[in-house]
Specification:
Blueprint (H helix, E strand, L loop, with lengths): L4 H36 L6 H15 L3 H14 L4 H23 L2 H19 L24 H6 L1
Helix pairs in contact: 1-2, 1-3, 3-4
Amino acid sequence: MKINPKNLLKAGIFFIFLLIVIIIFHVVVGFLGINYLLKNSGFQDFSVLLSIFLSLLCVYFKIFLPLSIGTFFGIVYVLEWHWTLAILITMPGLFFLVPKKLNSTFNFNTFYRSNESNRNYSNFNRDNESVKTNVKNSEIIDGEYKVINDENEKDKF
């Protein structure tokens, strides 16, 4: 079975277009849900402005949890669809959101690196490696040196 590259390109363009439509749907329905929640919580006068500002803030700072909650309430209360369908539409965004937030909050790569550096430091002391310094020949003081073996001569200097 041969796959035609043109059909593969068409399928890719179709899925990218479908993804853009789904993202726009989530943002618009999230805006409607945030607007609904703000109207019912006492911000009737400024609910549209606040929901626009909050939606743009969520998209700009890539914090999609309030937008996902707004999407759920927008589907259930504004579009009046069943809550199970709202969960099915909202959950994929949350599944992609949670691992990213866990990785950025608990940075496991940094934790492992710092642990390895502590192990390397302890191995340095066990292997009896010498400490390397950057001493140059010009820094050594030239002159005559006398070895002092007697306790009385040490006190003179």
